Amino acid sequence: MPPLPALARRADAALRDLASRGARRAGWTPAVLAHPGYGSGDRVRVLGRVLLAPPGARPAERRAVPGWQRFLTLESPRTEVVVEVGGLRTVVLSDDDGLIDVTLSLDLPDAGALPVVLRAGDREASARVHLASPDAARGVVCDIDDTVLVTGITTPLRAAWRTFVLPMGRREPVPGMVRLLRELTSGAPHVPVVYLSNGPWNLAGPLSRFLAGHGFPPGALLLTDWGPTPTRWFRDGQAHKRASLRRLAADLPGVRWTLVGDTGEHDPALYEEFTRAHPDRVRAVLLRDTTGGAARVEHLGEVPVVHGRDGDALAAALPR
C-alpha cells in the first residue's frame, strides 16, 4: 500500500482535477502569473505560475486581497505557455502544480533587468529577469520571513494572523534591513540578489510589491509550493532551500554569496552546511537574532558569521 502522504497527494490531485473540470465548463481559462527570475552570461531562469480564472479576471492585478484568499486558487497543470524574453519565443509546459521553472539559453545584454512576458491563450503577464554582471564577484541570498518581513514564525498563531489575515500593506519590515541589503549591494553594478523563502508561490505578488515598496534591492524570488508530496504531508522547506542554494552556486559560478537569514528556523544550520561544503563561495553569513541578543561575530573557517537583533546591528558588526 502506498504511504499516506502519497495517497494524500493523489487525493489532492483528484479533487483539483474535479474542480478544474467544473471551472472549465463554467468558462474559466488559464491565466498566467510571472515572477522575477535571474540570469547571467547566456542563460536565464524564467519563473511563473498558471491558474484557472473566470473570463475577464486578472489574478496578477489583485491587490487588497487577504492572504487566505490567495490560497483559494485552481492551478492549471500541463498548460502550454509562451515565454518571450530577449527576442526569443519559446513554448513550455507548466508542471503538475501549475508552476513554470525553465532555463533558457539566448544572447543577453551584459547585465540589467530584462523584461519577460508569459502568455497563456489570450492572457499574459510580465516580470523581469535580473541579470547579474558576468564578472559579478559577490551576491546576496536573503530569507524573507523574520529576516526582511516581520512574521513571528516562532509564535505560530501570531505568524498565521500576519500571513493569512493581515494585508501585506500593513506588514512591517525588519528594522535596518533595507539599509543592510543596500550596503551589501553597493559599490558594484548589478550585484545579484535572490530572496529565498519557504513561503508559498501564492504570496509572490504581494511579497514582490512589499519588497519594492519598502526600497529593498530588486532581485529574483524563489518560493515553494505548499501541499502534500509523494513522501511528505507538507513540502520540505529545508530541502527547498538546500536545493536552491546548490542551484545558485551552479548557475552563477563566479559569485561569492552573503547569506542573510534569521535564527527563528533552519537558516543557521542550512547556511552552515552550505558554507562547509563550499567555503570559497561564501563571503559572510548574517543572522538576525530573533531573541534580540547582543551582536557577535563567530567564524566558520575563514567565513564570518554575524549575529544581530536587526539590520543595523548586523551592519555595525560586519567585519570590513
Keywords for this structure?
eight-stranded mixed sheet; globular; Immunoglobulin-like; alpha/beta; Rossmann fold
What is the count of distinct domains?
2
Rounded to an integer in angstroms, the radius of gyration calculated over CA atoms is: 20 Å
Mean pLDDT: 86
What is the helix content?
A: 25-40%
Net shape: globular
**What's the CATH class of the largest domain, please?**
Alpha Beta
Q: How is the main sheet built?
A: 8 strands, mixed
Identify the CATH architecture of the largest domain. Answer: 3-Layer(aba) Sandwich
In terms of structural class, how would the helical and strand content be classed? alpha/beta
Which homologous superfamily in CATH is the superfamily of the largest domain? HAD superfamily/HAD-like
Strand content: 25-35%
Task: Give a description of the structure.
The protein is of the alpha/beta class and 320 residues long. The chain folds into 2 domains: 4-16 and 28-131, Immunoglobulin-like, CATH 2.60.40.10; 138-317, HAD superfamily/HAD-like (Rossmann fold). It contains 7 helices and 15 strands. It has helices at 4-25, 156-164, 177-184, 204-213, 237-251, 267-277, 311-317; strands at residues 29-40, 43-53, 74-75, 80-85, 88-93, 99-105, 112-120, 123-131, 138-142, 193-200, 220-224, 256-262, 282-288, 296-300, 303-308. The strands form 2 sheets. Strands 1, 2, 3, 4, 5, 6, 7 and 8 form an 8-stranded mixed sheet that branches. Helix 3 crosses helix 7. The termini are far apart. The model has no long low-confidence stretch (mean pLDDT 86).
